Amino acid sequence: MSNVSHAGHDMAGHPDVWEMSDRYARMMGGRDVALVDAPVFLVGLYCAVSPWVLHFTTSQSALVTHNLVMGIAIAVLGLGFTAMPQRMYGLSWAICAMGAWMIISPWVVGSSPDTGVVLNNVIIGGLAVLLGLVCAGASMKMSRGAKS
User: Fold this and answer.
1) Contact 74, 100 (CB under 8 A)
2) CA 58 to chain centre
3) Residue 35 to residue 30: CA distance in whole angstroms
4) Parts of the chain with a pLDDT under 50
5) Residue 143 has what pLDDT?
6) Distance CA 117, CA 110 (A)
7) Residue 29, CB half-sphere, CA atoms under 13 Å: how many?
8) What is the 3-state secondary structure (H, E, C) of the chain?
């Protein structure tokens, strides 16, 4: 039998160690907020289904369509952050704007919304603004790191 253990062998002697290290840094660079991608997606997903969860599909038909479209848009941005983080984190300010819009939308889009609908959209909007700010902060940190 041959000895296939690599005890005593480290990567320092590998001929491509610098290239592999550089590639790893490029691949993992900008993933400081990888844990934010899933919450952004989930906030968008919940926003899209919230009219059916809270049963305001008949009383607020305009807000139903609005939450569905906004939820899908937020979820798509969350998926984009996962798939192409370097390109998408510039759009994190868009999530902040969408969150702010979600906060005021029950009064603008809806017609005399009840407390549950208002609270739902305010919570969704607040979470979107918070997650967007985290993504924007990471984006600014990445851009400063790239200039250095």
Assistant:
1) no
2) 30
3) 12
4) 30
5) 65
6) 9
7) 16
8) CCCCCCCCCCHHHCCCHHHHHHHHHHHHCCCCCHHHHHHHHHHHHHHHHHHHHCCCCCCCHHHHHHHHHHHHHHHHHHHHHHHCHHHHHHHHHHHHHHHHHHHHHHHHCCCCCCHHHHHHHHHHHHHHHHHHHHHHHHHHHHHHHHHC
What does the alpha-carbon distance between residue 94 and residue 76 come to, in Å, rounded to a whole number?
Answer: 12
Task: Give residue for tokens 């400063």.
Answer: 144
What is the per-residue pLDDT for 4? Answer: 56
Closest by CA to 52, choosing from 65, 40, 38, is 65
Q: Please give the structure tokens belonging to residue 93.
A: 């300010």
Residue type, 88: M
Residue 127: both structure tokens together: 């979470």
What residues have CB less than 8 Å from 23, skipping those under 6 apart? none
User: First-to-last CA distance in the chain?
Assistant: 52
The one-letter amino acid code at 97 reads A
